[in-house]
């Protein structure tokens, strides 16, 4: 039994992760910074949602953790071991089996020339987990059953399945190698609204029954609130706020998080947010300053990097912003979303 008094090593952790992409041509030395020293941890059996606008760096972070992109600097720790230092040039097969990725487009991630049986068998064979003969067939059927599909789909081609079924196959392929961490990059965004809740419930069940840790990347704050234990907000390649999902989305402390929450349709909140204030926040994007989200007329954002401030009494919610003041945080342009989340909203 785990001793609750002993600090647990996170299942996956990134420390000071930086990713620069070259720009300006073949012989240019200029670059664009996609990640600016990201620190994020995922506990065992925990789902962490990563939210933010397109271009904020969410998918780049996932691709770096999956070793599909090479970070410029920083650390990626799996069970406390720095895998970038252990496997400098490419990810080991062991790491690939422990950290799996589910991509946004379920059709693009499955080769249309092969049957479903091929995708699952190939994963098992590469990682030395495939059985022989009839036992292999039972193994494949069990994988499909785990994700809510029937055995007869093994002989189907990807184009013969719906979008939701294809995404379940992609999840089954990731489960085939018994991963410790799944990186789910917008796994529901290309699916019909009616089937999204089924994928979210599947991910939650995998966490609860198999103890799989997950990084859930999404634009959808409602699904983050529904599924994730914690939510981290990313802007311009940096994390600006993090906390337990219910608390963070009910009391957003950073102006950018408030902007994201205000964009969620909610009839109960109609007219509660000043359009001029929202326009001012939106115009703050990507200024040349120490803080990318520069909204401070007193130039503090331009002169120094914001430090972390604890929000509330739990100690799990923090924000990086010069404008945050604990004594009046609850009244300073804070927009609280609706407290009720139905399955329709989550989908």
Short description:
By secondary structure, the chain is of the alpha/beta class. The protein is 32% helix and 21% strand.
Features of this protein?
single chain, 347 residues, alpha/beta, Rossmann fold, 8-stranded mixed sheet, 4-stranded antiparallel sheet, disordered C terminus
CATH architectural label of the largest domain: 3-Layer(aba) Sandwich
- Compute the CA-based radius of gyration: 21 Å
- Report strand order across the widest sheet: 6-7-8-3-9-10-12-11
Unreliable residue runs: 285-289, 328-347
The overall number of domains is 2
Ends: how far apart?
A: 37 Å
Q: What summary fits the major beta sheet?
A: 8 strands, mixed
What CATH calls the topology of the largest domain is Rossmann fold
- CATH class descriptor name of the largest domain: Alpha Beta
Protein model, in words:
The chain is an alpha/beta fold. Helices cover 32% and strands 21% of the residues. The protein has 13 helices and 12 strands. The strands form 2 sheets. The chain has an 8-stranded mixed sheet with strand order 6-7-8-3-9-10-12-11, with helices on both faces. It has a 4-stranded antiparallel sheet with strand order 2-1-4-5. Helix 7 links the parallel strand 7 and strand 8. The longest helix has 18 residues. The protein is globular, with a radius of gyration of 21 Å.
């Amino acid at each position: 039994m785990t001793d609750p008094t002993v600090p647990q090593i996170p299942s996956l952790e990134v420390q000071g992760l930086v990713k620069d992409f070259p720009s300006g041509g073949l012989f240019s030395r200029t670059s664009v910074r996609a990640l600016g020293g990201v620190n994020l941890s995922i506990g065992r059996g925990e789902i962490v949602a990563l939210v933010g606008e397109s271009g904020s760096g969410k998918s780049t972070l996932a691709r770096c953790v999956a070793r599909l992109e090479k970070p410029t600097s920083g650390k990626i720790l799996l069970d406390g071991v720095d895998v970038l230092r252990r496997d400098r040039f490419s990810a080991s097969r062991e790491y690939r089996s422990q950290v799996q990725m589910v991509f946004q487009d379920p059709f693009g991630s499955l080769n249309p020339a092969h049957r479903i049986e091929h995708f699952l068998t190939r994963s098992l064979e590469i990682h030395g987990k495939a059985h022989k003969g009839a036992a292999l067939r039972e193994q494949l059927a069990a994988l499909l059953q785990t994700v809510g599909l029937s055995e007869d789909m093994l002989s189907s081609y990807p184009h013969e399945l719906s979008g939701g079924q294809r995404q379940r196959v992609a999840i089954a392929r990731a489960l085939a190698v018994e991963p410790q961490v799944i990186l789910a990059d917008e796994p529901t965004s290309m699916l019909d609204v009616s089937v999204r809740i089924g994928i979210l419930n599947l991910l939650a069940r995998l966490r609860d029954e198999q103890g799989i840790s997950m990084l859930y990347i999404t634009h959808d704050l409602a699904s983050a609130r529904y599924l994730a234990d914690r939510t981290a907000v990313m802007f311009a390649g940096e994390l600006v706020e993090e906390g337990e999902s219910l608390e963070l989305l009910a009391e957003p402390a950073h102006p950018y998080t408030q902007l994201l929450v205000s964009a969620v349709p909610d009839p109960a909140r109609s007219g509660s947010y000043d359009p001029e204030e929202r326009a001012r926040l939106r115009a703050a994007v990507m200024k040349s300053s120490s803080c990318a989200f520069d909204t401070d007329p007193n130039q503090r954002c331009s002169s120094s990097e914001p430090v972390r401030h604890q929000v509330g009494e739990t100690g799990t919610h923090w924000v990086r912003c010069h404008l945050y003041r604990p004594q009046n945080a609850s009244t300073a342009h804070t927009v609280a979303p609706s407290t009720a989340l139905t399955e329709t909203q989550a989908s």
